[in-house]
Amino acid sequence: MCSPTESNAFYMEANVMDRGSDALRTHLSPCHQMEIVQTRRGWCQDELGCSPRTEFNYFIGRDHIATSLEDADPCCRLFCNGIHPYIMEVKELHSGLEMITVDRPFACHAAHCKCCCYQEASFNSGGDYIGRIEEQFYCCIPQFVIYDNVNRPMYKIHPPTCCGGMLVDCCAEGHPCGRGCCRQSFRVYPYSKVKTDDDAPYVGKILKKPISVLMELFTNAEVYVLDFPNDSSAAQKGSLIGSTIFLNSIFFQGEYPDGIGA
Length: 262
Known about the structure:
The protein is α+β, with helices and mostly antiparallel strands and 262 residues long. It has one domain. The chain has helices at 4-17, 22-28, 43-47, 74-79, 213-218, 234-253, and strands spanning 33-38, 55-60, 63-71, 86-92, 98-104, 120-125, 128-135, 144-147, 153-158, 161-162, 167-168, 184-190, 204-209, 223-227. It has a 12-stranded antiparallel beta barrel. The chain has a two-stranded antiparallel ribbon with strand order 10-11. A hairpin with a 5-residue loop joins strand 8 and strand 9. The chain is globular. The protein starts with a helix and ends in a 9-residue tail after the last helix. The model is unreliable at 1-14 (pLDDT under 50).
């Protein structure tokens, strides 16, 4: 028979696992990988400095399951791209039911040695708060932590590194002059207070890959392949989807000051 403490711990863990909308749990509970494809806009819009709202489509295998469209002030997006606040609701394709909502407030650019005004975003699903992601203090490699609904750290996220963790490893996803051209990733590690080095095993990955070299050169459309940790719940997977949207807005849509993004 369980003690009261063990029963409370089991109840809290079950409550965390069950959080999120029915649409989120239906699609993500059995899912191990998702592809997130940004809707292309014309190269003329990019060249003329236009900044339309970001739109994504979500695929599990060949099944198109969801879509999302950024809700942001157009002037703020145009003049503060990369740091502007927005809300993005991921909706099931045919029913329009919410799967996850990303709320990203205004904050200063992600940057080395910041002591405040960290970039962050929070995630909700079906009226439940399921977690958040927050930039951490760092000196060389951008670092982020994903927290659950009770503010417990779950995952650390950062690009693959080399040279003792001092530089981003540009060859981690293949040689830049070959099949690894334009492929960049953020790796997902179990949270630990001990610094994660480049030899530590990662449990998930957010991989940015090009649609084609020409598309990469002339448009801002991105494609992400998201590999979920094997033991992650639907709510945790929802937080990782939200984190992908968040990282896109910082490193690949905005003007990231250190040039990690494209």
